[in-house]
């Protein structure tokens, strides 16, 4: 340990030391101080006299701090090292070592300002990097402009002592700036400055000139442009134009009430952040605008879907009575009709079914145009849907003595990815057209091949043929070629719908034809990699018809449509062992089910006072009626309604107009 005695110190040696050196006596009085110590403490030589204490030479805070450290070192008899910030311009930081001894304390001083400045610079850079990192996180994670700017301001305010920020955006419709986001002022004051003309105040000037404005020492500024922020107590203010890809979108400014200016580094930081914010806000506003348009389109699509559902129900409901009673007249062996009457009934049935097909095609076409999915793709074996469709078209072909040749055997084992209902609809449409446009005694060939890893199905007829210049119009809505001149029924939407359905299933469709040589319509479908059992389509044969006379039980039918009630009553009136109970009200029907406990419930879905699905819910939640099977009979054929009905507990779902034979078969399955 170094110990000094003022009288015997080797002055020459001590003055050669590069560090400041101070010797204190046991009473803490100064015994010695070299020139370097005086320089570090900013003390003139003549001011230093023996017997002074550090308290006489330092400011009060520094002297008290030093005295506490010296006392601690003396009591603990340990060397202490610490740093102290000085309140003088030349030396900012001192590194101090205390060496206590019985006779006093030796103090070594070293100028540590340069190192502290480097450390401070590194610390500031780290803070700046952290701030930029946090800002980047906010820019990437915040979806709303207000959330982004509020989060960014919280980070900046702590780092730069900021108190306010203003974000103005260009209002194109008004041709001015509009205050969109802010913090640090009252709502009333913000309302006063909600709109700014270009060139008005600081932000309006920045927007007009597209250049940053820095206002410092605002307390003493006579510039009228800063009058508002001056009235808010803001002393330093920086306003930046927000420019994204050359386009001005607004301004972003920051202000402080506690500081009078910003450093160049701080201004560079603000500029960097504002540049990033400009691009982000532009992108965010674009996304918000697109989201808004998407939501509007979805609402419009939803309204269109609701309208389609309503129209489907309203159009199918009257057809149910027409087709239903026509079927009864046609099949009622108990009350035979004359040949002429039977012929007229047949025309009613044919026209009604034609109208039903037209309604279905129109609704499907509108659904596709509305972007509403109508497909349920499955892996289908070619043989299954070819076989089913041919069975359906054979009666029409036989009526015109047209022979149909099936040349699809080579591809019968192939599976394709398609909707089973829609693929039958497509193929049936092409076959019906082939029959319709072929002369009596003609022929139709249906064939299948593999091309470019896709299944190609062709339907060729021996009809009139179509000129090549008309091929491009064939698939246009409501386009008809020979219908008027050859008196052939048609609406011109069948092929349009076929094309849309095939495209939705990932295929293509085309035509090869010339006048006098018939036509060949072909379409392709993606081949499925799956190998599953074919999904059998349901077809009714005469042997499958159910004779209700062999059945017994009670059936409850709930439907608000009086004509449909009358239709079912007519079907059941001659069945002695099957009793039909009718109700035109859903709530009443629930009560009847609980009191009479039927074996089967037939239920309409869309009833005005008590919705059919609510009826199902009531029945399934009641221990008395929960096990009664329910068959829904509705004009609503939408997949959403059918799925909802099944989820609620409906056992089966039939769509109006009802096929009486199918209805009887279903009833037979549950009685």
UniProtKB/TrEMBL annotation:
Stored InterPro entries: CheY-like_superfamily, GAF, GAF-like_dom_sf, HATPase_C_sf, HATPase_dom, His_kinase_dom, HisK_dim/P_dom, HisK_dim/P_sf
**Keyword entries, A-Z:** ATP-binding, Cell membrane, Kinase, Membrane, Nucleotide-binding, Phosphoprotein, Transferase, Two-component regulatory system
Q: Which residues form the Histidine kinase domain?
A: 310-529
Coiled-coil intervals, chain numbering: none
Query: GO molecular function: any one?
Result: phosphorelay sensor kinase activity
Primary enzyme class: transferase
Q: Which residues form the PAS domain?
A: 13-77
- Which stretches make up the Response regulatory domain? 554-671
EC number(s) on record? 2.7.13.3
Q: Which GO terms describe its cellular component?
A: plasma membrane
Q: Name one Pfam family in it.
A: GAF_2
Could you confirm whether the keyword Transport appears in this record? Answer: no
Can you state which reaction this protein catalyses?
ATP + protein L-histidine = ADP + protein N-phospho-L-histidine
Cellular location of this protein? Cell membrane
Q: Which residues carry this modification: 4-aspartylphosphate?
A: 604
Q: Does the keyword Cell membrane apply?
A: yes
Name the chain's protein.
Answer: histidine kinase
């Amino acid at each position: 340990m170094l110990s000094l005695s003022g009288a015997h110190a080797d002055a020459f040696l001590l003055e050669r030391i590069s560090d400041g050196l101070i010797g204190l006596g046991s009473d803490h009085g100064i015994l010695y101080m070299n020139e370097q110590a005086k320089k570090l403490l900013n003390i003139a030589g003549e001011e230093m006299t023996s017997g002074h204490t550090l308290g006489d030479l330092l400011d009060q805070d520094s002297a008290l701090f030093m005295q506490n450290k010296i006392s601690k070192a003396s009591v603990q008899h340990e060397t202490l090292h610490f740093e102290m910030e000085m309140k003088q311009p030349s030396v900012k930081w001192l590194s101090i070592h205390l060496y206590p001894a019985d006779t006093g304390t030796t103090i070594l001083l070293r100028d540590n300002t340069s190192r502290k400045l480097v450390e401070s610079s590194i610390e500031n850079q780290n803070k700046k990097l952290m701030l930029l990192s946090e800002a980047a996180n906010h820019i990437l994670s915040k979806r709303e402009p207000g959330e982004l700017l509020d989060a960014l301001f919280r980070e900046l305010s702590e780092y730069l002592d900021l108190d306010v920020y203003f974000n103005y955006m260009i209002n194109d419709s008004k041709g001015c700036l509009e205050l969109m986001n802010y913090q640090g002022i009252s709502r009333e004051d913000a309302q006063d400055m909600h709109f700014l003309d270009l060139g008005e105040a600081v932000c309006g000037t920045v927007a007009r000139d597209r250049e940053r404005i820095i206002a410092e020492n605002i307390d003493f500024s006579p510039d009228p442009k800063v009058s508002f922020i001056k009235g808010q107590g803001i002393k330093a203010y920086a306003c930046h134009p927000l420019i994204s890809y050359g386009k001005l979108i607004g301004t972003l400014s920051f202000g402080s009430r506690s500081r009078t200016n910003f450093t160049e580094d701080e201004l560079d930081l603000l500029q960097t952040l504002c540049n990033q914010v400009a691009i982000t806000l532009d992108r965010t506003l674009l996304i918000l605008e697109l989201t808004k348009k998407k939501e509007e389109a979805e609402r419009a699509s939803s309204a269109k879907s609701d309208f389609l559902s309503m129209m489907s129900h309203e159009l199918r409901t009257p057809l149910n009575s027409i087709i239903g009673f026509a079927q009864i007249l046609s099949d009622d062996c108990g009350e035979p009709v004359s040949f002429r009457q039977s012929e007229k009934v047949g025309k009613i049935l044919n026209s009604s079914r034609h109208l039903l097909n037209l309604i279905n095609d129109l609704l499907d076409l509108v659904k596709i145009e509305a972007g509403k999915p109508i497909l349920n793709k499955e892996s289908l074996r070619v043989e299954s849907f070819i076989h089913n469709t041919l069975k359906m078209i054979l009666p029409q072909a036989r009526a015109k003595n047209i022979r149909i040749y099936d040349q699809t055997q080579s591809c019968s084992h192939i599976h394709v990815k398609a909707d089973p209902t829609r693929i039958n609809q497509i193929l049936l449409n092409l076959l019906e057209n082939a029959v319709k446009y072929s002369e009596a005694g003609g022929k139709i060939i249906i064939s299948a091949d593999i091309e470019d890893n896709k299944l190609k199905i062709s339907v060729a007829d021996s009809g009139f043929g179509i000129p090549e210049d008309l091929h491009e119009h064939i698939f246009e809505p409501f386009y008809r070629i020979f219908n008027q001149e050859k008196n052939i029924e048609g609406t011109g939407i069948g092929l349009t719908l076929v094309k849309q359905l095939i495209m939705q299933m990932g295929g293509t469709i085309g035509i090869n034809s010339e006048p006098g040589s018939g036509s060949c319509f072909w379409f392709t479908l993606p081949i499925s990699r799956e190998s599953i059992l074919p999904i059998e389509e349901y077809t009714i044969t005469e042997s499958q018809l159910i004779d209700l006379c062999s059945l017994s039980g009670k059936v409850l039918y709930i439907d608000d449509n009086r004509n449909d009630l009358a239709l079912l009553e007519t079907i059941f009136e001659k069945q002695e062992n099957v009793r039909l109970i009718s109700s035109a009200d859903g709530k009443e029907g629930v009560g009847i089910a609980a009191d009479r406990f039927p074996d089967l419930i037939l239920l309409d879905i869309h009833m005005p006072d008590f919705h059919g699905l609510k009826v199902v819910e009531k029945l399934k939640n009641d221990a008395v009626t929960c096990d009664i099977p329910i068959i829904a009979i509705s004009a609503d054929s939408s997949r959403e309604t059918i799925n909802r009905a099944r989820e609620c507990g409906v056992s089966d779902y039939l769509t109006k107009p009802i096929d009486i034979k199918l209805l009887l078969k279903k009833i037979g399955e549950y009685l």
